[in-house]
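BUG: 3D viewer hangs when loading the predicted structure for this chain

Environment: internal workstation, default settings.
Expected: structure renders.
Actual: progress bar stalls at 90%.

Input used:
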Amino acid sequence: MNPRIIAKTLGVLAILIGVTMAACWLFAWLQINHEGATELNRSASRALGISTGITVGVGCLLYLTGIGCAHELLRREAMIIVGLSWIAISLLGALPYLFCSPNLDAFDAIFESVSGFTTTGSTIMTDVEQYPDAILLWRSVTQWLGGIGILVVFVAVLSFLGVGSRSIMQQESSLNISDAGASRIRDVAFTLLKVYLALTVVCLAGLIGLGMPIFEAVCHAMCTIATGGFSPKNASIGYYQDFWIELWITVFMFLSSIGFMLYVFFTNRRWERLKSEEEARYYLVLILAAVLAIALDLHFASTHYGYGKSLRDGFFNVVSIGSTTGFCVSDYDQWPLFSRILLMVMMLVGGCAGSTAGGIKMSRIILFVKIANREMIRSFRPNQVFRIKLNGVAPDEKVFVTTSFFIALGFALSGIACIVVSLFEPDLNMISTIGCVFATLFNIGPGFEAVGPTQNFAFLSPATKMVLSFLMILGRLEFFALLVLIVPSLWKRY
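Structure tokens produced before the viewer hung:
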């Protein structure tokens, strides 16, 4: 293990974060010149300026530590970098919230920063609209950076990563790199960035065309494509009460919850791979079935829900929760029990592998069902030979083991986290406690009841906020890349 290459890589990451902070600082400065030196604008400019200086300074110090190091990044070092980098960017990203006015305390600032970078969307801001625009812009930028995976940017632009680039992309995201075939990882990363940018620009243009103010459109476009759910409005998308805005955002939430490698296949004209795609097809069927079921439940169980409103609210909220975005147009906590349970299932499933969505991922659900079917048939036909395929390819047996272990570990971690949260928050009921854990561990955003779509996480104790912050990073890195940091053998020199 080479600590200098780790320090060098973390240093470049910190500088990159500093550059994005500087862009928000420039926006704050332009606001001062355009709107005048109001207290809010001055506080935002001061906060982002100080934060930029600290972040770039830390980055430069780390980079200088590893300068001249020619050693390429190996798999073990890549795994260390993935885990440490998400902790580092979360701490650096909290600085603007600490220094602005109104400011957050350290625990709240870290929680908000982690929620942004992990694209969870849970918030402790009780009144979002009282914060300066530049701080809200930074809040959206953190989600946009975290959506595609900030380390994917590294793979695309850094030449010294070497063989570790593949490990970084595999550990930092749910991308199936084997689908890339013989393509260079940097080429794949560049294509992903182009797709991500294109989706953001098209979404932004549509929102502006539909009449949304430019600043709000920028924030919502970034958080839609990142499936993050932060909004500069307290009422989220429900503030606009506009069917076409809701529809446009719903389309892009769905597109962003589809595996981004599909877009790579499309741009490379790999039509045979697109035809064999199972995950996106099953995900679309699940979304449509959930929308229809919830719409019917809302119509027949609620006196004030007609067919049109039932379908409209059901469509938006199912895609929002299923894609783990977390935008809201209505309070689903007031819905019938069947609809709420179905939404909880959608939370757990999440989007497709290789998308910006959280959750278990549709590909794992499909594989798990196929594995369960195989084992049930084997119970009475032990000699039958099975060939399980996903997207037209038969995965290695170790993939089946990893899938089953991931799902089992996810529920085990959920149970442990619920116990811990219940110790710190004895006044929370069971549904609220489960909502806290599911909303953060699976990067969804809003939960149920006390942390529902019209509530926030501000009332929780500092200890609980740190536990939930850990869960957000744990879920974003899909458990292993963070848990591996506590394995002693990872740090041994051999």
